[in-house]
Structure formats: C-alpha cells, structure tokens
Amino acid sequence: MSYPRIVVLFGIATSIVFFAISTMLYSRSSLSDQNSSKLDTVGGHTPGYPILKTTGDILDPTSSVINPKNAVVDPMKYLREFNYGRVSTSSNGTVIRDFTLIASDQQTKEVSPGVFYNVWTYNGTIPGPTIRATEGDLIRVTLINKGTKFHSIHFHGIHPSEMDGVFEGIAPGGRFTYQFTAEPFGVFLYHCHMQPLEEHITHGLYGVYIVDPKQGRPPADEMVMVMNGYDTDFDTENNFYTVNGIPFYYMHHPIQIEKNRLIRIYLVNMLEFDPLNNFHLHANLFNFYKTGTKLIPDEYTDIVTMNQAERGILEFSYKYPGKYMFHAHKTEFAEKGWTGLFLVKDNTTESVNQNLNITSTRNNISYSNSNFNNATNIATTGGFK
Amino acid sequence: MMEREESNIHNTYNISKKTIVFGVVPIIVIGAMIILLLNSPGILFQSSVKPLPQISIEKVEFSDRGIVAFVRNTGPSDTTIAQADVNDRIHPAAIEPSRILTRMADAKVIIPFVWNIGEPYKIGITTDDGTRFEKTVNSAAPAPRPTVQQASTFAIIGTYVGVIPVMMGLIWYPFIRRLSPNKYNFFLSLTAGLLVFLGIDALLESNEIAVNNLASIFNAQILIIMVAIVTLITLMYVSQRLIQRASKRSNPEVEYKAGYLSHSGSDSELSDIRSSSSSSQQQLLIRPIAISMMIAIGIGLHNFGEGLAIGAAVLLGEVALSSFLILGFTLHNTTEGLAIVAPMAKSRRIPVTKLVIMGLIAGGPTIIGAWIGGFLYSPIATVIFLSIGAGAIFQVVYSIGSWMYHTNGSRGLLNNHWIIIGFAFGMLIMYLTGLLV
After folding, report:
1. What is the rounded distance in angstroms from the CA atom of residue A13 to the CA atom of residue B163?
2. Which ipTM was obtained for this model?
C-alpha cells in the first residue's frame, strides 16, 4: 500500500509546486497598488470622470504641449500669419507678389504629443504658409524642391494650363516659378499634385491661398483654420484630426478674442480619407460665405459641413465673455483632436497681444506668440526665406 | 590484450586537455561573433529602416477608477508609448512605471473612463511612430478583487465544476466492478476516449490563447507542444519507475496470472486469487491503483487549467458565469470520475478514503485554478498549465492502453469491437456534453 501513498504525495507535491510557480508567474500587481507619493494627475477634463494620481508618465494629448523644436507647426503663430510676399510694382502699375516655397519630404516631426511622423512640407510646416494677395495682383511663386521625390504646386483659382502644377513635376533639386494673376477673390488652397496624389497631400504638402476683393472686407480679427488629419499607421484611416496641424492644441492654448469684435475665419478642409468634415461653433452663429467668392453670406448657421478641399469664410462676434468650444460635429474627429476653444475677453482696451503669453502648468514650456500678425494690420509684408 | 582494450575504452571516455580545447573553441568563436555583431551594428548589416515596434496588450481590467491595460513591448527595439484610446477615441491616460518600454518590458496604462457593464470595448495604444495597437474586450465586467467573498465564489464554482462531478463519477465504482470483461473493456476504452477528447481540447484551447493573447515573440505554439511532450515522457518515466518498484516486491508469475485472470476472470476466480495470498492481492492492486492515481493527477492538471480558464473568462469579461454554464461543466466533468475508477474496478475493494483523496486530487485543482485565473491572470502561464494537462492526459491514455493490452492477452486492442465502440462513445459523450458549455 506504500506505492499509492507515494503517488498521492507526488500528486500533492506537484500541486504545491505548480501553485508556487503560478503565483510567481502571476506576480503582476493590479489596480489597487497605487503609490501614495503622487507626482501627477490625469483625467478630470470631463465632469464625473475619475481623476487619477500617478507616479508614472502622463499620456494626455488634450493638455500636453509639444516641444516647439519638434512640432510640425506652431498653431498659434500660424493662426494669424498671412504672407503677402515680396511686393513690387510693374511698369503698368500691377502689384507683383513674389513668394518662395521650399518642398521637403525627409523630415520627421511631432504631429501629436509623443507621435513622430515623416512629414512632407512646404517651408517646414503643416499646413504650409498662407499666401495672400488682392484680386488682380500678379503672383509669382518659386518652388524649390529640396526633397527626394518630384513635387509641384497646384493652386486652385483661375490660371493658364502650364501654371496648374499637374503635368510638370519639379525634380529633386529643381526649381520652377509659377506665375498667374490672382483671380477671382475668395478663399482657395494649394497642394502638391504629384502621383500618388493622396500620399503627397496626406503627408502635408498643402496650404491656404486667399485672394481679397479689390474693395477689401470690413476690418476684423482675421484667422485661418485648416482642418486636416494624419494617418500615422498608413492604414488609409486618419489616426489624428486637427485644426491647424496639432490635435487639441487650442484646448490648452485657447484662441483669445475680444467681446463684440468681428472675427473672420478663412476655413479650409484639407482632410484626406474621410469624405467630410465640419466646423461647429458653440453658443453663437456665424455668417458663412461659401468659397468666399461673394460678399453676401450664403447662410447664417452654427455648423458648416465640407467635403475634401471645400472651404469658406466665417464671420461672427461674441456677445458674452467666457470660454467657448469649436470643433468638428463629426464627434469622432473631435475626440481625435479636432477640438479647440475661444476665450472671449471683455477688456476691449487691452491689446490681444499681451494676453497670449500662456504657460503650460504641466511641462513648464512657455509660449510667446508676440510675432503673430494682427489681421487688421493688412499692410504687413514679407516673403518666405 | 584485455588491459589494452580496457585502456582504449578508458581513453575514449577520458577527456584530455586537447579534447577540452576542441570543446571550448566553438563557444569562444560564437562569443566573439556575438560581441562583434552587438558592438558594430552599422559595419556588418547596414539598414536605414527602423524596425517596426510591436506592443502586446496582454490584459485589460475594468474598475470604478477606469480601464487598465497591461502592455508589453514585444518588438525588436525600445519603444515609447505616446497615447491611449478607448474605442478608437483618444483619452488622457497615465502609464506606470514609464512611457519608455525597453525590450520585453511591461507597463500599466490607466485610462480614467466611465465604462458600461457588458459592453464591448477596444483599447488602443499608439507608439511614438504613430502605430496603433488594439485589444478587444467582448464584454466589460468589473475585475474580480481578491476579497474573501470573491474567493469563496470561485471556490464554490470550482467545487461545482471540479470536485462534485468527479466524486459523482466515483460512485460508479461498485457498478463497474460487477461488469463482464467485455463491458469492462468497453468502459475502459470509453475512459480513454474521454481523455483523448480532453487532451485535444486542452491543446486547442491553449493554442487559442497562444494565438489571441500572446505575442509571437513568445513562440507559444511551439511551447505548447514542447511542454506537452516533456510532461508526457516525464510522467511515463515516473509511472514506469513506480510499477517497476512494485513488481520487484512480488512474484512475477502471480502478477502474470493475476493479470490474465483479471482479464478472463469471473468474480469467483478473482476472489480465489484474493484469498490465496496477501502479497498477490497487493500486487493485483498496485498497477490499477497506480494508473488510477496517474489519471487522477492528469485530470487534476486538466481541471487546474479549466479552473484557470473559468477564472480568466470571468476576469476578461468573456463570460458571465450563468448557472447553465456551470451545469454544462458539471455534466462534462462527471465522466472524469468514471475515468478514475474504471482501471481499479477489477482490483480488490478500494477504501472509500482513497477514492475521496483521488477525487480531491482530480477535482480540487479547479478551485485553485479559478482563484489564480480570476485574480492573477497571465496568458503564458495558462498556456503552460493547459499544455502540462494535455501531456499528463496523453500519458494516462497510454497507461490505459497498455493496461488493456496486457489484460486482453493475445487478443490485442483493435481486435475487440467493444474497445472501439467504447473509445468512440467516450469522445462522443464529451463532445455532446461539451455543447452545453
């Protein structure tokens, strides 16, 4: 009878060994072991959501700031930066505006907090610089291709076939000057038109081109907004959606505007893959000028939906001070970065400039936006270097 | 002459200094190659392509404080985690201990999130190059906390699923004792059929976990086969040793006779043997009991794996344990008790305490498995335990087969239609009761 007993003991012994091994293998700690020494908190943006204290790192694109050295663009600078080119006048009195755009396709930049992506850019940013002229001006844009692939610029608007940037690509190392008259007035876009078209656009080769009517528009605090996305894992679906290049940027850097002042937004949809995108303004309505080609608004609304490459001009002013959201009402895009805030200030006497030194409490990276161009100061000049 | 031969032999097994050199040189060369490769990566193999990151989300837990994803860097190089999302919508999160994961390092991503019970969730992790990795949870359920109440719930489930069914099966012992040889063979092969089903089931289940929950870097599918084979041959060795040691103590002739008689025997013949001598009685008993014990251990390992699976299923929110599911497991496992008693049926009467011990060895691990699976789930450990269970079960099938072969004398195994029918029937029972689970 002693053998069965040995077997019994063997069975018990193996069970004990298995138990010990498995306990060691499963040594993972679970939720309960929060350290009391708190360093940072996360959550709490949404009422009712748990606020978490952690000793680890924070993954929070809605409140974290990208180091400007790596960032694909400074959205606050881009917002009100209009480029009128190097201005000269021809013998017959036509205003000539010279611009230089440098195409590159080898840089890797931070497009969303912590996410680095191979960006293809005009002048190093997504979106590229905003080109602005008055109806009837002669525009000359020199493209220098410092990339490794063929690139071009295809402007929307009226121009001759050979200035369309479709059939003649600029080889790496090459250059070409596009020359055409700015017509008609409205809000347009420019982008690379090399094949594969979708690839060249979604990597970032695009920007806004504005033609002002000869008589001008009423004075306003003007800004440009480009709605775009990034497909960082190349599955033909956008991982991030933004307005002006970096997801959630205007959530932690609200756009400061003045109460009762006319705001004019040149809005362009450069989103790839998704057929539509939209802009919804909180607690307010705006006049919408489709493509900006008329001076009479098409609609008085709080939301505008745009297909790819569609654009328009929004005009509104805020009646009450405070914080107001604007975002894609395609809420998936909103939750992936296409969300921002207007901060409406009551201090009408103070300059907007002085309110824009915003310091991030989390990363202690401060931004100074002193060099943005106030939109009413239309005389600002200067080309791209 | 003899001396020289001896010295020759001696020489062959004696390791001289020269031989040591031949043994060590390859190791030194390989070491040098490794050092060279690691220190000059650019010289030998130049590549401008950065290796793709690989992140495995091994486990997702739900609690009142949010969602916790356990992630591991299973890629070829260090990786930085950039963002986390729930259902492909970006959410602020914390990562502990650090967002930088070295190779094979793991971290805990905690997403403060108000989730809904029973709904499916996709948890996504994006690395610094913008690649997104996703894990789907079919049905969110609060992670079981290691409280006394939860532990006793798992213990009750384990008792229902493991201990009670096995014990119920053991009650068939007196019934099987009174069967004619053909019917007895039928039940033995039925047992083998049950066990083969369980073994295949364990292999398939571990394969499923390996494919769904483990990164390819673990090579888990090969691990399954490896662990199963090693378990099989180790247990074969152990049982051989046990039987050998038992045989040494007794007269081989009696063993043969007993074996023969138990095959052909009626009860009266058996009782003759029983009364003849105490040593032969003992001998008669040893081998069947050893087999039964091996079966109990094998089934215990299997039930441990089953317990892990049940606990993990509760933890992962894959099942809501309904009474119907538990009933299904109970019916399914009742046959396991039958498997334990069948080889012993023609031996001397077994004390009830012995039966109970075997029942506990076979059924008890379900409770332990449910605790571990529910509180401390790890897919790699589950795969290993299920594979051990499979190996143990196949060893038991082998034992039953050889036992039947010996007791059947010259007739062989496949010559007896009762054995074939029993085997097929055993698997069929498991298949049908398995439909309930």
Report:
1. 19
2. 0.76
